[in-house]
Amino acid sequence: MNILPAGSAAPDFTLHSTPDQTVSLSEFRARNVILAFYPADWSPVCGDQLSLYNELLEEFGKYDAQLLAISVDGAWSHAALSRDRKYHFPLLSDFEPKGAVARKYGVYDEKDGIAGRALFVIDREGVIRWSFLSPMGVNPGADGILKALKSLGTAKEMAG
Amino acid sequence: MYGQSPELATPVSAEDHIQGPASAVVTLVEYGDYQCPACGMAYPEVKRLQREFGTNLRFVFRNFPLTEVHPLARPAAEVAEAASLLHRFWPMHDWLYEHQEEWSAYGGEALEAGLRQVGLDEAKVTQMLRRPGIDARIQADFMGGVRSGVNGTPCFFLDGYRVDGGMEELEYAIPQRIEGR
User: Fold this and answer.
1) How near does any CA of chain B get to the CA of A145, in Å?
2) ipTM exceeding 0.90, yes/no
3) How are the residues of chain B apportioned to helix, strand and coil, as percentages rounded to the nearest 5?
4) I need a surface site. Which of A129, B12, B71, B122 has the fewest CB within 10 A?
5) Would residue A132 count as lying in a domain?
6) A1 assigned to some structural domain
7) Cα Rg of chain A (Å, integer)
8) Which among B9, B147, B151 has the least Cβ separation from residue A49?
9) Of B149, B152, B153, the CB nearest to A143
10) How many domains is chain B built from?
């Protein structure tokens, strides 16, 4: 895996967020975006990681940042997981062609056919400002995301 | 291992819930959620470590409720913080973990039964629950945890560094640090 480093332009994508809706990265220009690639729906570590981010949506909002989580699972699996865990952010399905977006970001695990556990903070201009690849079994937490967002400034500071 | 682990962003202070002397050799900080089953399982293990290492070990508990997955985690944390204002934090904390399955299944009423069992006056607790400091306290614990790299619950920090190897690592690392002082 060769994760896209800070300073790279974030490749655009359009992926299903539900069986009948899609989301494109370009819709979030003018906002910051947190991309969280994760290996699989329903695996315990992912659950914890996304549940933690789910508690932090308000905090991310202070930095005008939208969280998007991505795995290769299908939209129906995402819908069930999201309902079960009460997630309030989109889970995107990098399903067809499988892992194409994860490949563009350099975080696809060819051997296991899943996305690596990778985080990106993308600024309002669509530039990656921070990226991080965590070992598969290790939940990276949220401190790195918050540090990166802090360096981009809060929504208030940007408006002022 | 230690050098690379995330570091506790909020040092232990008099504001914390602490068991054990300030002179203890080792300080163990837990970020926990009262409704989290894994925290429930860690609870007797922490007690065992405390018994084993006695005054050499100082234990600190901080709130880290994951409220969307555990809808009663926050009310339980509020009750424990209210109990703290009435100087009964640890009895309430212990009761919550020792009866986790019961109140998790039965909800608010079962929490009230807990108050009575640890000898707290419900009216006084209700009065304490209205204090804005309680919310602020839980939120401060939570965000301090996030900044420290808490990535799930329970999350332990030994002498300021996150422990990723669970109980096994604690059992190995605590005596090592005590012997190596």
Assistant:
1) 10
2) no
3) 55, 15, 30
4) B122
5) yes
6) no
7) 14
8) B151
9) B149
10) 1
